[in-house]
Design brief:
CATH architecture of chain A: Orthogonal Bundle
CATH architecture of the domain at 3-68 and 139-243 in chain B: 3-Layer(aba) Sandwich
Shape of chain B: globular
Helix content of chain A: over 70%
Strand order of the largest sheet of chain B: 5-6-7-3-8-9
Strand content of chain B: 25-35%
Structural class of chain A: mainly alpha
Helix content of chain B: 25-40%
Radius of gyration of chain B: 18 Å
Number of helices of chain A: 11
Number of helices of chain B: 7
Order of helices and strands of chain B: EEEHEEHHHEHEEEHHEE
Order of helices and strands of chain A: HHHHHHHHHHH
CATH superfamily of chain A: ABC transporter involved in vitamin B12 uptake, BtuC
Oligomer: heterodimer
């Protein structure tokens, strides 16, 4: 008899890993792994804001992440510093300030380990509804805007001339990033969100012949990693978040043995 | 002839620097207009204004109502991480069907490229695919940004010939940005020599004798048989073209 909290954990993991597939592939195509880090660390500030204001923490995380994502994308480019430096600074600055603010405002009352590395085994049924709703919403938005997002990645000017709503596509993507960060935070924690996005996508690359296939394979890889990771956590008492990422890395390593398709 | 696009005394500044000063330009149905100019002469900005991607600070831009524009960019950003065939790439254009894709690829002699992975295309194949994409929507007006870059001389001639054929068949107006006049010559009706302002303009055989053109492009262009190569890009170690308007490298010429 499998215990209920394991079933909840698996459902929660799948609700995040499946939409994380296409989101991660988009990040990989745009070389935005650093951006993913910068954004996930920002989530800590969102948690602090939620604690201070007493508002729903999921909402404050989404809002803060969306604001920071937009700032990074629309104002982030400075000639004097390269993008990876800007992202590196903002990523670690938000982490540092987030940890300080959290320590000051909650005086060690929060479960810091859970925030940093996820606490999927204690997911409650209300959170499952929230994750499932978020996951479905993300998949719908991605399906609707998939071509537009791809065109914007390939050439923004060309997309605009062809009548793609470039700004809408970009802002929606930022919104979806904020949403996936807030969701993935519960599963693998702030420190490992980028891993959950990037590793399945990188694994899928070698198996795919089309962008859509790559997104689907990434979702599949993420889902398998969730199943294996939570099993490892249950059987051997591994921490669940890191176990999921470890399993995804295992899948990636195996994929390296497969010859690259174009 | 009715103008498809008319730019009238257009001015544009970026951060206080004048990029375009009082530039007028018109493109008519069936006409090929070529913009030439050295690095930083405002070619790209003028092209972006023509496409409607940028607004001028002063001056008037008039497009024919319901003008269908086809655009061929200098470069598309398809990383090795994105598995993409030519077919799928062309399908990403809104409202595009497979029979249209095949017809347009055949038109640029690229029918065999349909199932090729995008990133394995050679320079010439890439430009033909981008050209096919530009004409997918049966445009009245084509804007081509350095359409022969990264292509060897033989391939360049073939591409210019294709562009001429497309103009004849579709009777569309063409605005082309190019960094040298030599090979463009045969197909171009009107040349606009740009260096922030319009230095000179007219038929290509008049332009190559124009003193302003010669002073801008140097004596080498006097002899049309000499291939004068004016860089506005440079190449990385792998031979990839890097558009270089913002870089400090390659300031020869």
């Amino acid at each position: 008899m499998i215990e209920q909290f394991i079933i909840y954990a698996i459902i929660a993991g799948l609700c995040v890993a499946i939409p994380a597939g296409p989101m991660g592939t988009i990040l990989v195509w745009q070389r935005m792994a650093f951006f993913g880090d910068a954004l996930s660390h920002t989530a800590l500030l969102g948690v602090v804001l939620g604690v201070i204001t007493g508002l729903n923490i999921d909402i404050t995380v989404i809002v803060i992440c969306f604001v920071v994502a937009s700032l990074l994308v629309f104002l982030g480019h400075r000639d004097s510093l390269s993008t990876d430096t800007v992202l590196g600074i903002s990523s670690h600055a938000t982490l540092a300030f987030g940890l300080i603010a959290l320590s000051v405002t909650t005086a060690g009352q929060t479960d810091l380990y859970g925030l940093l590395f996820g606490d999927i085994l204690s997911v409650q049924i209300e959170e499952l509804y929230w994750l499932a709703g978020g996951g479905v919403l993300m998949l719908l938005a991605l399906a609707l805007l998939w071509k537009s997002i791809l065109m914007v990645i390939i050439n923004e000017d060309l997309a605009q001339v062809d009548g793609v709503y470039v700004l809408i596509a970009k802002l929606t993507f930022m919104g979806l990033m904020a949403l996936i960060v807030s969701m993935a935070m519960k599963v693998v924690g702030v420190m490992l969100i980028t891993a959950l996005l990037i590793i399945p996508a990188a694994t899928a690359r070698r198996l795919s012949r089309s962008p859509e296939q790559m997104a689907a394979f990434a979702s599949f890889t993420g889902a398998v990693a969730v199943l294996l990771g939570i099993s490892a956590s249950y059987l051997w008492d591994w921490p669940a978040g890191p176990a999921i990422v470890a399993m995804a890395t295992g899948a990636f390593t195996v994929s390296l043995l497969i010859p690259l398709r174009h | 002839m009715t103008a498809l696009l008319e730019l009238d005394h257009v001015c544009k500044k970026f951060h206080g620097n004048t990029v375009l000063d009082n530039v007028s330009l018109s493109v008519s149905k069936g006409e090929i207009v070529t913009l030439i100019g050295p690095n930083g002469s405002g070619k790209s900005t003028l092209m972006r204004i023509a496409l409607g991607l940028e607004k001028p600070d002063q001056g008037r831009v008039q497009r024919q109502p319901k003008l269908r524009i086809g655009y061929m960019p200098q470069k598309v950003n398809v990383e090795a991480t994105m598995p993409l065939t030519v077919k799928r790439f062309l399908e990403l254009r809104p409202k595009t069907r497979l029979d249209g894709i095949k017809r347009r690829l055949d038109e640029v002699r690229g029918g065999h490229l349909l199932d090729k992975p995008f990133r394995t295309l050679s320079g010439g194949e890439m430009q033909r695919v981008l050209l096919a994409r530009a004409i997918l929507g049966d445009p009245d007006f084509l804007v081509l940004d350095e359409p022969v870059q990264g292509v060897d001389i033989v391939g360049q001639e073939e591409l210019y010939e294709l562009i001429g054929n497309i103009r004849d068949r579709h009777q569309c107006g063409v605005l082309m940005v190019s960094h040298d006049l030599h090979l463009v010559m045969a197909q171009t009706d009107h040349v606009l020599c740009l260096n922030k302002h319009v230095c000179c303009h007219g038929a290509p055989d008049k332009i190559i004798e124009h003193p302003d053109y010669l002073s801008l492009f140097g004596a080498s262009s006097q002899n049309i048989a000499v291939y004068s190569h004016h860089h506005d890009h440079h190449h990385d170690a792998a031979g990839q073209v890097i558009p270089g308007e913002h870089t400090e490298h390659c300031r020869h010429d």
